[in-house]
Design brief:
Strand 1 and strand 2 form a beta hairpin. This protein is of the alpha+beta class and 123 residues long. It contains five helices and three strands. Helix 1 packs across helix 2 and helix 2 crosses helix 5. Bound molecules: FE2/S2 (inorganic) cluster. FE2/S2 (inorganic) cluster binds next to helix 2 and helix 5. The site of FE2/S2 (inorganic) cluster has 12 residues, from helix 2 and helix 5.
């Protein structure tokens, strides 16, 4: 059902956990299945210095969150906002159709974290 990249990111997820001194957090639950992803950001000078996640969900959701963190680290907030669920699916080498919403969960959680950061740091 899953390709090798997805299985690798599920078995060895990158950047799992929380950031104690986080700059912002995003939490999103999927309207499709109720699974939840938390994204923690450490932002410095508008750049994502560190990103961690916790996902209470299926294998595809964990793999999507893991892949997302590897794509977002080092990017500016504006660049990171552009990461779509399609980008995540592409980097994972594809997901089954019924699991596309799992990648949406990851992308939405990152956007939520960035929006929360921007709300808290408005001049
Ligand atoms: Fe809902 Fe994967 S089944 S996030």
């Amino acid at each position: 059902m899953y390709n090798e990249t997805v299985i690798d990111h599920f078995n060895n997820p990158r950047n799992v956990g929380e950031i104690a001194e986080k700059s912002a957090m995003g939490q999103v639950s999927s309207p499709v299945c109720g699974d939840t992803t938390f994204i923690y950001l450490d932002v410095e000078d508008g750049v994502i210095k560190d990103i961690k996640f916790k996902t209470f969900g299926c294998a595809a959701a964990i793999a999507s969150s893991s892949m997302l963190t590897t794509m977002a680290v080092g990017k500016t907030l504006d660049e990171a906002k552009q990461i779509s669920n399609d980008d995540i699916v592409k980097n994972l080498g594809g997901l089954p159709d019924v699991k596309i919403h799992c990648s949406v969960l990851a992308a939405d959680a990152l956007r939520e974290a960035i929006e929360n950061y921007e709300k808290e740091h408005q001049a």
